[in-house]
Amino acid sequence: MHKLVVLYSEPADPDHFREYYVTTHLPLVMKMPGLLAWRYSFDVAATNGETPYFAIFEGDFADAAAMAAARSSPQGQRVAADVANYATGGAVVIHYPVQDGTG
Predict the structure, then answer these.
(1) Where is the EthD domain (predicted)?
(2) Torsion sign across C-alpha atoms 22, 37, 73, 67
(3) Within 10 Å of residue 103's Cβ, how many Cβ atoms?
(4) Counting runs of H as helices and runs of E as strands, what totals does the chain give?
(5) Would you say 88 and 25 are in contact if contact means Cβ atoms under 8 Å apart?
(6) DSSP helix/strand/coil, 16
(7) Is 57 left (phi over 0), alpha (psi -120 to 50) or beta?
(8) Is the pTM of this model over 0.90?
(9) Cβ-based neighbours of 84, under 8 Å, separated by 6 or more
(10) Helix (H) or strand (E) segment spanning residue 57
(11) Distance, CA of 32 to CA of 76 (rounded, Å)
(12) Distance of CA 15 to the CA centre of its chain
């Protein structure tokens, strides 16, 4: 499993961000090939102090190659180009292989 995470800083207009993200951006994301699962939240909290992030997105792919293919696809390019339409505070994109654990 390979995870793609997007951390969004506080936008200039939080209401616009939320509305646009849910009604326009996420439908684009759902069209990315190879995306196995996704989730997001506008309720990001820090364990100590104030969080530097307004929202978070997580996407799951089978592996790094599947994620790279999705991001370079026409659908992935549309998703990347769309970020400027709502994320005025900027976004940090990270990805990593997920190691399973047991408790």
Answers:
(1) 10-88
(2) positive
(3) 2
(4) 4, 4
(5) no
(6) helix
(7) beta
(8) yes
(9) none
(10) strand 55-61
(11) 6
(12) 18
pLDDT digits 0-9 by tens, 58-74: 999 999 999 999 999 99
Both tokens of 54, joined, read 């307004």
Structure tokens that stand for 71 in this block:
């991001």
What's the angle, vertex CA 70, arms to CA 59 and CA 52, rounded to 5?
40
Tokens of 98: 């997920």
pLDDT in tens, 12-50: 999 999 999 999 999 999 999 999 999 999 999 999 999
Cβ-count burial of 81 within 10 angstroms (0-12 exposed, 13-18 middle, 19+ buried)? exposed
Non-local (6+) Cβ contacts of 25 within 8 A are 79, 82, 83, 85, 86
Q: Which strands make up the sheet holding 2-8, listed edge to edge? A: 37-41, 55-61, 2-8, 91-97
3-state secondary structure of 101: coil
